[in-house]
């Protein structure tokens, strides 16, 4: 989760504000981001209290010497000059001496706070702020020569309303993915469905995570993050391409269970020798594949359209997370603890420790997730859920127009939730582990939001999510006295195979059942069998058949 409202350079605090430009009549206006230092002069918090003053376009000059000042000076105006060649103090001092009521310095580089010393701050009483060169070009194009500007800096809200949307998306994805993963695992163990194509079989395959796989995965994550930090512009496009491919597969996996229930387009491709089509897939499978690929390509083409492209990115991201939660399986609580603990350290290190190691003092995780401000391509990595800020503030306009939550903050605790649901089903514990772990995830996410609001800086969400989910699952296992089974995954031995055989029913003469016959009491096992009227798989009835043969031979 990432958000910030301040930057630091040489212990100088810079604050984000807004410059409201409008025509002379004030009928049309637009806000632009500015970066200022309140030690020169403070800005009003309300636009209505800010003075609207005409600008003076002096961008061909850097305003470093008296010769740069036009004849007559800047009486009751706010000049716009280029950055460079002299200090901020020299520029603002010339502007103030010549009657300016403020100063806008246009910068082609990254916006940094206009610094000075205590004596210089006391001498200057007009506001000075930095404006980006791209915004200056847009101002020149949008407004005429008689434009006016009003500089102000409204307070940042404690928490943005978009956090509610992120919370619902994250908790919903974890709950649905965990439930789906457990249900799929149950069907694989207790039922043997007939398949009519290879794609459905592939859809049911899962990957059990081993400790070696966990170590390799964490090393790869660390290496990739560091490489992205140093070679962001070269690797970002590859990450986008991988996300496009993976999200297409995830979207197909999520939509296929619904499409397969449609009563049309079941016909197959004619016999052929074409690659990928020689198995004669159904027409509806091809149509669904084309749709999923089309959605991903649409996002790639319009990924920088901030107004609506984030909706496609979130939809594809949720589909990818659901697919991973269904496919990747942690076989034991021991594996869950190892994975979550290692990634807990990884997340904390790259958010809180790396600022002490980098020259800029920036967190590697924050810089990579939000995109470096000095990136030449200005690409943003899509491995996050993103929602635009709903509150009107300088932070939304300048630094971080979106609130972000990484896929890892959904997937990592989600794998534990999926494990809990599978354990619930196969030990018939009324889904208490699943519900408790899902609620713990929601509580951990709320704690993350609170920490974000209090610290006003990017937070490693796993710092709060991992303890909440792990400790809650552990507490439930201790309360139910099932910790040994929960830790080793021994509860996953199919209960049907281990069911005791009723010898009175498998050997000797059988009583005829009639209306007056007493029904067998329904236990948890027989209730589970009665959920599906289909015959049991051969491997599950084999032990019973062997016992019958032994009884007969005796």
TrEMBL record:
GO cellular component term of the entry, any: Golgi-associated vesicle membrane
Regions crossing the membrane: 161-182, 209-231, 237-259, 285-302, 308-325, 337-357, 402-420, 432-455, 461-479
Gene Ontology MF terms: aspartic endopeptidase activity, intramembrane cleaving
Topology versus the membrane: Multi-pass membrane protein
Principal location: membrane
Subcellular location: Cell membrane; Endosome membrane; Golgi apparatus membrane; Lysosome membrane
Protein's UniProt keywords contain rRNA processing: no
One Pfam family from the record: PA
Region (Disordered): 506-554
Residue span, PA domain: 62-138
Keyword Cell membrane: yes
CDD domains xrefs: PA_hSPPL_like
Gene Ontology biological process terms in this record: membrane protein proteolysis
InterPro entries assigned: PA_dom_sf, PA_domain, Peptidase_A22B_SPP, Preselin/SPP
SUPFAM superfamilies given in the database record: PA domain
Keywords: Cell membrane, Endosome, Glycoprotein, Golgi apparatus, Hydrolase, Lysosome, Membrane, Protease, Signal, Transmembrane, Transmembrane helix
Chain intervals with Basic and acidic residues compositional bias: 543-554
Family per record: Belongs to the peptidase A22B family.
Protein name (record): Signal peptide peptidase-like 2B
Organism name: Scophthalmus maximus
């Amino acid at each position: 989760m990432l958000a910030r409202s301040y930057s630091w350079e040489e212990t100088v605090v810079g604050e984000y504000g807004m410059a409201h430009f409008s025509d002379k009549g004030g009928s049309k206006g637009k806000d632009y981001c500015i970066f200022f230092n309140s030690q020169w002069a403070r800005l009003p918090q309300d636009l209505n209290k800010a003075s609207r003053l005409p600008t003076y376009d002096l961008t061909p000059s850097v305003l470093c010497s008296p010769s740069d000042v036009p004849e007559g000076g800047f009486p009751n105006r706010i000049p716009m000059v280029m950055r460079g060649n002299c200090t901020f103090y020299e520029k603002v001092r010339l502007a103030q001496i010549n009657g300016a009521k403020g100063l806008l310095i246009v910068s082609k580089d990254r916006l940094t706070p206009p610094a000075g010393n205590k004596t210089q701050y006391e001498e200057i009483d007009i506001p000075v702020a930095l404006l980006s060169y791209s915004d200056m070009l847009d101002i020149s194009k949008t407004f005429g020569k008689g434009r006016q500007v009003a500089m102000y800096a409204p307070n940042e809200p404690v928490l943005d309303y978009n956090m509610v949307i992120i919370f619902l998306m994250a908790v919903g994805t974890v709950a649905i993915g965990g439930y789906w993963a457990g249900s799929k695992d149950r069907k694989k163990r207790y039922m043997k469905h007939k398949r009519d194509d290879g794609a459905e079989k592939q859809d049911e395959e899962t990957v059990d995570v081993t400790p070696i796989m966990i170590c390799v995965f964490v090393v790869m994550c660390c290496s990739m993050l560091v490489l992205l930090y140093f070679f962001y512009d070269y690797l970002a496009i590859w990450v986008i391409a991988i996300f496009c491919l993976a999200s297409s597969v995830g979207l197909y996996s999520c939509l296929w269970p619904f499409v397969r229930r449609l009563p049309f387009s079941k016909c197959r491709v004619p016999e052929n020798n074409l690659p990928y089509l020689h198995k004669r897939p159904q027409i509806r499978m091809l149509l669904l594949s084309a749709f999923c690929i089309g959605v991903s390509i649409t996002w790639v083409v319009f990924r920088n359209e901030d107004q609506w492209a984030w909706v496609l990115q979130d939809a594809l991201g949720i589909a990818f997370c659901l697919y991973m939660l269904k496919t990747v399986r942690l076989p034991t609580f021991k594996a869950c603890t190892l994975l979550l603990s290692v990634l807990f350290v990884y997340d904390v290190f790259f958010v809180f420790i790396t600022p002490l190691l980098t020259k800029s003092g920036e967190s590697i995780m924050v810089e990579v997730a939000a995109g470096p401000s000095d990136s030449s391509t200005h690409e943003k990595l899509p491995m996050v859920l993103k929602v635009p800020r709903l509150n009107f503030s300088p932070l939304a306009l300048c630094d971080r127009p979106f609130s972000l939550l990484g896929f890892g903050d959904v997937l990592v605790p989600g794998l534990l939730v999926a494990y809990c649901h599978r354990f619930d089903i196969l030990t018939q514990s009324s889904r208490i582990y699943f519900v408790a772990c899902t609620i713990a995830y929601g509580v951990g996410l709320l704690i993350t939001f609170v920490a974000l609001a209090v610290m006003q800086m990017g937070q490693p969400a796993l710092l709060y999510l991992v303890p909440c989910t792990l400790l809650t699952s552990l507490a439930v296992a201790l309360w139910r006295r099932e910790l040994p089974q929960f830790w080793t995954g021994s509860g996953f031995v199919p209960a049907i195979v281990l069911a005791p055989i009723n010898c009175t029913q498998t050997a000797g003469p059988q009583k005829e059942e009639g209306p007056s016959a007493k029904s067998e009491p329904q236990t948890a096992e027989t209730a589970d069998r009665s959920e599906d009227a289909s015959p049991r798989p051969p491997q599950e009835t084999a032990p019973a058949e062997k016992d019958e043969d032994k009884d007969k031979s005796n």
